Amino acid sequence: MMKKSLYTCISVVGLLLAFEAAAGQPVEKNYADFCATCHGADRLGGAGTALLPENLARLRRTEAFKTIADGRNASQMPGFAGKLAKEDIQALVDFIYTPLPEVPAWGVKEINNSHLQRVPDSSFSDKPVFSADPLNLFVVVELGDHHATILDGDKFEPIHRFKTRFALHGGPKFSPDGRYVYFASRDGWISKFDIYNLKVMAEIRAGINTRNLAVSGDGKTVLVGNYLPHSLVLLNAEDLSLIKVIPTVGQDGKSSRVSAVYQAEPRGSFVAALKDAKEVWEIPYGDKDFPIRRIATDDYLDDFFFDQAYRHLIGAARDGKKGLVIDLDSGKKVAELDLPGMPHLGSGITWEYQGHPVMATPNLKEPLVSVIDMTTWKTIKQIKTLGSGFFMRSHENSPYAWTDGFNSTDNRDVMHIIDKRTLEVAEILRPMPGKTAAHVEFTRDGKYVLVSIWENDGALLVYDAATLKEIKRLPMSKPSGKYNVYNKIMRSAGTSH
Ligand code: DHE
To answer: Considering only CA atoms, which residue is closest to atom 24 of ligand 1?
Structure first.
């Protein structure tokens, strides 16, 4: 298969020469030293977002200045005020808001040229090549050295570890039978991994800066949402070959980044939110033309999740302090949610509380967990925590919901155990004092909980979900998310879908 050099067509030399910082080193040197590792030498993104005017459309320059100086809340972006003078920072701001001499093309030709495929041969098995329960496996993403581990969820022993693309982000998605898992990297690579045979089957670069992917409920199609270019990309789930590229242009004719895409199996559709247009798109995946139903929204949606019936979409506006609830049948907003500090809504979970379905989510900027009645859409409790959290998890068989303090400054090492029956913090754990603890996932039966120690020399800690005692520790390289096959394919109310 052909693999094209990705960035050859872009010349940034002229642009680099155009700027020089007023103080300190030239701006291009500062960019190379402080920004390029995450944002790409050519500004097309990597672990960090692409730094192009198109991608920064909704960020004011003063905000960009603050971000470079102080870092970015809810991301891995550090602040550089201690290393760069104000003039240097301003020069960087001007630099990143300057268009590239040529907008990089990433369309049908480039996507097709990047396609890599492994054809199954007689050595391939239709059954797992290992003895562990294939539905109680965990896929653990290790961000430290860009690997993934397939973990036996009964014995808590690694079965296989393999190299992934650089900077995977978002939850990997499974085929409906749990045999295949699909990963997306921030720089647009989509990979399909055969868990039964422990082999990467296909890869394709669907974008330059990708948000996330979804796999259709019938297992036939993959939809990728991009920041750059502004597009949705439909792929055949079988071999990841390209079906079509859908430019994401709002009703007003302006093109937009994609905030997130998910599949809504009970509706037979994909749902995508646009980041720069007040629109949600529903795309039925059973129709070979993939028609788009546009739903107008009151605000730009950053991320969203669904109620368990997939009737309502619950979205967060990035700049606002509220969430929106949209009835997907009528296409109308039915409620606004009081969310004080911007949730990472994909982390929302649901359960039954006193006969009502409730949803709960941490808030990235406030040390609070919001619990909202999903019948009235009113907040019934804001549970105080020691630090702002990022992820939240539970399981149908557990009375507890676990949430971290990942987004705090002083309490990144805590895990709060919330009693779902009383809405009180029942216990606070410090799994490894001083080390960042984050992201939790339960085993298939809900009896054990896996917690990440989010450090390069980190670990995966296994807890008894009832006694809250640690029972095993596995060294891992910055394990970010871990995903239980059964809980994901059954769309457990306690985890992300
Ligand atoms: Fe994530 C999921 C958006 C920063 C780790 N993150 C998601 C999803 C979205 C999202 C839309 C759901 C996608 C899915 O699962 O299909 N994340 C954002 C942001 O907007 C934000 C705040 C800024 C950004 O950089 O884009 C952001 N996320 C981060 C991080 O800094 C984290 C901690 C480290 C990293 O990988 O960059 C991070 N995000 C994660 C993880 C998930 C995730 C581990 C999957 C959670 C799950 O259990 O499903």
So the answer is: 75
CA dist 396 and 257 (Å) reads: 35
- Separation between Cα atoms, residue 30 and residue 150, nearest integer Å: 39
pLDDT bin (cut points 50, 70, 90) of residue 75 is: low
For 363-401, b/e burial (b = at least 16 CB within 10 A) is bbebbbbbbbbbeebebebbbebbbbbbbbbbbeebbbb
The residue whose CB lies within 8 Å of the most ligand 1 atoms, and thus the one to mutate among 169, 300, 345, 439, is 169
- If one counts every other C-beta atom within 10 angstroms of the C-beta of residue 402, the result is 29
User: Which tokens sit at 326?
Assistant: 């949209």
Tens of pLDDT, residue by residue over 399-411, are 999 999 999 999 9
The residue contributing the CA closest to ligand 1 atom 9 is 170
Domain map of the chain by residue range?
2-96, 348-497
CATH class (in words) of the domain with range 348-497: mainly beta
Question: Out of 1.25.40.10, 1.10.760.10, 3.10.580.10, 3.90.220.20, which CATH number does the structure's domain 2-96 have?
Answer: 1.10.760.10
Query: By three-state DSSP, how is residue 347 classified?
Result: helix
Region 315-340 average pLDDT: 87
Residue among 351, 66, 110 at smallest CA distance from 208? 110
What's the pTM value of the predicted model, to 2 decimals? 0.88
State phi, psi for 385 to the nearest 5 degrees: -125, 175
pLDDT band at 453 (very low <50, low <70, confident <90, very high): very high
- DSSP labels for 304-336? EEE-TTS-EEEEE-SSSSEEEEEETTTTEEEEE
Residue 117 identity? Q
From atom 40 of ligand 1, which residue's Cα is the shortest distance away? 170
CB within 6 Å of ligand 1 — which residues? 74-76, 143, 169-171, 212, 260, 303, 344, 346, 390, 439, 480-481, 496
Q: Which one of 344, 391, 392, 441 would you pick to mutate in the ligand 1 pocket, going by the greatest count of ligand atoms within 8 A of its CB? A: 344
Q: Give, using CA atoms, the residue closest to atom 43 of ligand 1.
A: 170
* Minimum CA distance residue for ligand 1 atom 1: 170
